[in-house]
Each structure stands twice: as structure tokens, then as C-alpha cells.
């Protein structure tokens, strides 16, 4: 039996963490098209150069290229029992292609896991997030124990102030992802997410395979709901 799962969720919904757990528990790898494209960064062939240019301009890679890369990835040995798809499909053309491709293998999309989070919470999870070199993560709004946070006013009075953070008592300074530091950029990402996922959700709802998971719970509780949905 194979298991093909599409993982969808707004930034900050905890997709990355839950994908790791699905990988370990169900023994299927996570396939992120964004990661596959980023991995082409060091290549110099024509395809990789084209993808690099598209990504640098912030646009989507064309469907034909994206579909071909996914087919190639799904043909690898570790994907024989299925995969967790992240960032793909991004539109209905890709969705229909994926379905047809899986049908040829005698498989199908078993579940679309939709990690749901209200938009304001999603915003705060991104805007308040900082991380340490070892990958541990803290949040100004939700998980600030043991961290000194400071809103540094811009000398020129620009808004918003900069969020500085370090481990309490003069410890390691924590890093904020540059794309989380701008409220505008976060809102734009949320808008893009809504715009692109709404039609896809309707598409898969018509097939009755969407599992809505409340992502505004503890990591454990979200995981319990995911396991229940997939089992
Ligand atoms: P992501 O990490 O999912 O945000 O993807 C980073 C970039 O890779 C996107 O901005 C696109 O340029 C490209 N990309 C990733 N997945 C897809 C997809 N399914 N279709 C088209 N382009 C994609």
C-alpha cells in the first residue's frame, strides 16, 4: 500500500515539524518542490539556470518543468511507498497532472492535510519568531521564556522597529529570518497563500479527501489528529 499525502498550511502552521513526524512514522519522504528547486542552485545546466532566474524573480516555475521534476523525484527508490508533498501542487493544472500520474502507477492522492490556523495567529508566529544556531525556536508572542526581547527603534524613525533577541543573561543572540522582519512581506505571503490554496482546496474537496486539522493546538495534539486522519 502506498501513501500519497499533500500537506498544506499557512506559514507558521507547523508544516515542517509535522512533515518530519509523518516521515518517521509512516516511512515516506517529504518532497518539497521549493527544496528541489533550491537544490539546483549549484548546477550550471540550462534547466537549473532557468529555474534560478525564475526563483530570483519571485515567480512560479512553469507547470511543465515543475511536473517533470516531481515525476523524476517520485520515481526514486525511497519514494516507492509514497511521499508527503509540500509546496506541490500549487494550482489545478499541477493537481490534475499529479492525479493522472499517480493513476498510471495504480495509486492516488490519499489525503490532503490542511493545517488550519487563523490569519492573525499565523502573522504573529512569523513576525515574532527568532531562532538559535542549534535550530531551537522562540517567539516574542508565544514562547519568550529565557529570552530577552527588545524592540530597537530605528534611528530615522522608520516603522516597524527592529526586534532584537538574545538568550537571557547576555547569551547567544538569536536570529530573525529577514523575510519575517517585514510585516508587509508576511502579509503578502499570507495573501498569496490564500489566493493559491483556496481553489485547490475546493478542487480536492470535490474528491472528498481534505482533512482539516486545527493547527492552533500543541504540537502533540496536532500530531494526534494527523495520525488519526492518515490511519
Ligand atoms: P517554496 O519553498 O515552496 O516557497 O518555493 C520556493 C520557490 O520555488 C517558489 O517561489 C517558486 O518559484 C518555486 N516553486 C516551488 N514549488 C512550486 C510549484 N509547485 N510550482 C511552481 N513553482 C514552484
| Strand arrangement across the biggest beta sheet | 2-3-1-4-9
Elements, N to C (H/E): EHEHHHEHEHEEEEHEH
The top level CATH class name of the largest domain: Alpha Beta
- What is the CATH topology descriptor of the largest domain? Rossmann fold
CATH architecture of the largest domain: 3-Layer(aba) Sandwich
Find the CATH superfamily of the largest domain.
Answer: P-loop containing nucleotide triphosphate hydrolases
Topology:
Elements: E1 3-9, H1 15-26, E2 30-32, H2 33-38, H3 46-56, H4 63-74, E3 82-86, H5 92-104, E4 111-116, H6 119-127, E5 129-131, E6 137-139, E7 147-152, E8 162-167, H7 183-205, E9 210-214, H8 219-230
Parallel strand pairs: 1-3, 1-4, 2-3, 4-9
Antiparallel strand pairs: 5-6, 7-8
Helix pairs in contact: 1-8, 4-5, 6-7
Bound molecules: adenosine monophosphate.
The site of adenosine monophosphate has 13 residues, from helix 2 and helix 3.
Q: Can you describe this structure?
A:
With 231 residues, this protein is α/β, with parallel strands linked by helices. It has two domains: 3-118 and 183-230, 3-Layer(aba) Sandwich (Rossmann fold), CATH 3.40.50.300; 129-175, no CATH class. The chain is 42% helix and 19% strand. It has eight helices and nine strands. The protein has helices at residues 15-26, 33-38, 46-56, 63-74, 92-104, 119-127, 183-205, 219-230; strands at residues 3-9, 30-32, 82-86, 111-116, 129-131, 137-139, 147-152, 162-167, 210-214. It has a five-stranded parallel beta sheet, with helices on both faces. A hairpin with a 5-residue loop joins strand 5 (129-131) and strand 6 (137-139). Helix 1 crosses helix 8 and helix 4 runs parallel beside helix 5 (92-104). The radius of gyration is 19 Å and the shape is globular. The structure holds adenosine monophosphate.
Amino acid at each position: 500500500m502506498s501513501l500519497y499525502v499533500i500537506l498544506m498550511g499557512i506559514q507558521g502552521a507547523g508544516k515542517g515539524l509535522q512533515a518530519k513526524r509523518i516521515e518517521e512514522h509512516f516511512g515516506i519522504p517529504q518532497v518539497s518542490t521549493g527544496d528541489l528547486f533550491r537544490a539546483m542552485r549549484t548546477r550550471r545546466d540550462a534547466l537549473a539556470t532557468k529555474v534560478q532566474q525564475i526563483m530570483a524573480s519571485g515567480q512560479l516555475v512553469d507547470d511543465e518543468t515543475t511536473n517533470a521534476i516531481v515525476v523524476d523525484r517520485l520515481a526514486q527508490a525511497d519514494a516507492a511507498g509514497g511521499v508527503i508533498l509540500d509546496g506541490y501542487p500549487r494550482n489545478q493544472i499541477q493537481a490534475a497532472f499529479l492525479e493522472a500520474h499517480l493513476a498510471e502507477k495504480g495509486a492516488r492522492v490519499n489525503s490532503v492535510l490542511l493545517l488550519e490556523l487563523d490569519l492573525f495567529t499565523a502573522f504573529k508566529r512569523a513576525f515574532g519568531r527568532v531562532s538559535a544556531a542549534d535550530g531551537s525556536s522562540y517567539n516574542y508572542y508565544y514562547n519568550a521564556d529565557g529570552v530577552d526581547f527588545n524592540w530597537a527603534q530605528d534611528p530615522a524613525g522608520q516603522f516597524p522597529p527592529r526586534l532584537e533577541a538574545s538568550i537571557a543573561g547576555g547569551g547567544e543572540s538569536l536570529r530573525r529570518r529577514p523575510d519575517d522582519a517585514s510585516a508587509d512581506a508576511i502579509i503578502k505571503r499570507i495573501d498569496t497563500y490564500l489566493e493559491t490554496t483556496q481553489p485547490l482546496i475546493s478542487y480536492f474537496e470535490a474528491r472528498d479527501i481534505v482533512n482539516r486539522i486545527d493547527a492552533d493546538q500543541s504540537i502533540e495534539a496536532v500530531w494526534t489528529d494527523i495520525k488519526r486522519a492518515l490511519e
